[in-house]
YCII-related domain-containing protein
Amino acid sequence: MEFDSFSIGLLLLRPDAPVLDAQAEDELQDAHMDHLARLHEAGLLLAAGPLLPPDAGPNRGLSILRLEAQQAQEVLERDPAVIGGRYSVLVLPWMVPAGAVSFSPTRFPHSLAEARAS
């Protein structure tokens, strides 16, 4: 049997994340979203979005990348929200039977304003 390989990237809110005012938080989120949109446009990121536990806000995110785990770790660590100390990164290799998962073409927003407008 053949398998397709992906990497699952988890962004986890750090317990020591800096406390930001609303403007700084929005700016960091815009930079984070722009980073993900650029990865998607480069063909490296297939899907991404926040994980929303019922008792908390969007404090974690999941990404599916078309990269080996080490490469995925490197590109996710370049995320401004990781560099800024908000998130840590956990990358897991993921294998599925060939053809079991497919991703439709889409466009990722580069900012909160763009996401809210659509």
Q: What stands out?
A: The chain is about 35% helix and 30% strand. The radius of gyration is 15 Å. Helices lie at 22-41, 69-77, 80-83, 112-117. The CA atoms of residues 9 and 118 lie 25 Å apart.
